[in-house]
Amino acid sequence: MNLPKFLLADNSNHPEDIFVLHTEYPRFLINLKDDEIEWFEDLSDENEQDLANELEGLIEAAGLFYDAEMEGLE
């Protein structure tokens, strides 16, 4: 199966939250309401500076993905 890089997720127990799931390495779920991130990978062996730079871009891309999806629904 070929998964998209990002997926929207929601949960009726958290109606105010906006979740985006990143499906490629490093996999994570971000709540755009408060930028809280749940990691699905062990990142302890990664170079911290390289990882920080990559993650900053991925988090920004998750927000842009959400904005584009919402524009498509209008």
UniProtKB/TrEMBL annotation:
It comes from the Bacteria. This is Uncharacterized protein.
